[in-house]
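pasting for ref
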Amino acid sequence: MTEAEYFATGDPLERHVYDAVLAILESFSPLTIEFVSVGIFFKREHTFAELRPKRDRRRRLRIELSMLFSRSVKHPRFARTWQGTGQRSACFLSIYDEREIDQEVRDWLTEAYLTSPTTSH
């Protein structure tokens, strides 16, 4: 799916959050962005961050930003975390406003990108 097709039917919040995340990541290389029916995947060689539209208990739209790390990360802003086998973990933020994409989130996205596993040649 193309970017235009993805955003053609979505809520404006999705676009605003995507633009805020992209402003952080656009200078990273290599970077691949995949638009799929369930959300947006940001990849180096593998997915390191995702944006997915969700509804909270009150049915309000939120955008779930998930990030994969090579360490266990705990923070009160995370709505939930997942610890994989080994050192990989995932953290999930509930975003209701693009202004929540702040310096702290910038640091986490940068770390997720830089620690994303790559294939050695």
